[in-house]
Every structure is written in C-alpha cells, then in structure tokens.
Amino acid sequence: MTSLLCDQVLCPFDGVADARLDHLDLRWDECHRRASVKTTRAGRSVRLILRLGVALRDGDVIADTPECLLVVRVVPCQVLVVRPASAREAALASLELGNLHVPVEVTDTEILTPADGPAMGALSRRGIAYGVETRLFQPTAISGVTWNVAGDGAGITINSPARIRSTP
C-alpha cells in the first residue's frame, strides 16, 4: 500500500457527510511536527511533510482525493483549567506558566495547559484555583519546543524557533 502524502492544510472540514471521510488522530504535540508517518482510522498510511510554521488543528482537511477526504482529529488529553477570578489572577497564572515554558491555550475565560506536577505546584503556591479535565488542547503558539508526552521519559527537546498558526 502506498502512503498518502500530505503537505498542507486545504481547508477546515465543513461537517458534510462524505463516504470518502477518514480521520487522522493526533495528540496535541503531534500537530506541531513538520514531518511524521501516521496511520488513519481506516488503516491508510499517511506521510505528513508540512512547511515550517504550519500547525495542524482539529478539523483541518489535509487530503481531498477521489478515494479519501482526510480530516485531522486532535485527541483530547488531561489539562489544567484555570478560570481566573480577576485580571490579577490571570496575570499571575500566566507569569507562573510562562516561567515553566509550558504551552498554553488561552480563551476569553480560561487558561489551559497540559496537566503536570510543576504547573500544578506553581499555581497552588500562588493560591490559583484550577481543575483537571479531559479536553481538546490546541495551544496557540509553541516556539522552539517539541514536547514528548508519550510517557517514555524523554522530556522536551529544544528546536529552532518556529511561528505557529494562531487560533482563528
């Protein structure tokens, strides 16, 4: 079986039913990798080779062929959810998480970051309330860091800085 080569995001998925529909499940950290080889839910081999600075997002269409309409699905993961009660609390949470160099996703009312001990400790020391939830996590920017969340203990690897597409 030949691999399907995907080198760009074509468009967001419109949700219309299509018999060719297949999904590529990715962890949040895999969405920022330039090159990888993955297998879709239907068993298709996919080679991702993306331009520098391109990050995949949940719902991106990365292939549209006569045989396949391939859509990215980001697998939900455990995240810390901070719902700041004030601007001061939002600033303190941002400062602490920034000092740890952890990726964050910021919405109008929440700050999300992967659940881990150092982030929990930093927030707790400042008296900032947080919850742990399983959610879709799509950080708005990652610069020069590859996160290893596979559980093999390899930690993080510092790479050359890259600009990542921001949340629309």
UniProtKB/TrEMBL annotation:
Alphabetized InterPro entries for the sequence:
UreE_C_dom, UreE_N, UreE_N_sf
Signal peptide boundaries: none
Per its record, what are the GO molecular function terms? nickel cation binding
Give the organism, scientific name. Humisphaera borealis
Domain (UreE urease accessory N-terminal) spans 16-63
Q: Where is the Urease accessory protein UreE C-terminal domain?
A: 78-140
State the superkingdom: Bacteria
Q: Pfam families of this UniProt entry? A: UreE_C, UreE_N
User: Quick one: a GO biological-process term for this protein?
Assistant: protein-containing complex assembly
Q: What's the protein called, per UniProt?
A: Urease accessory protein UreE
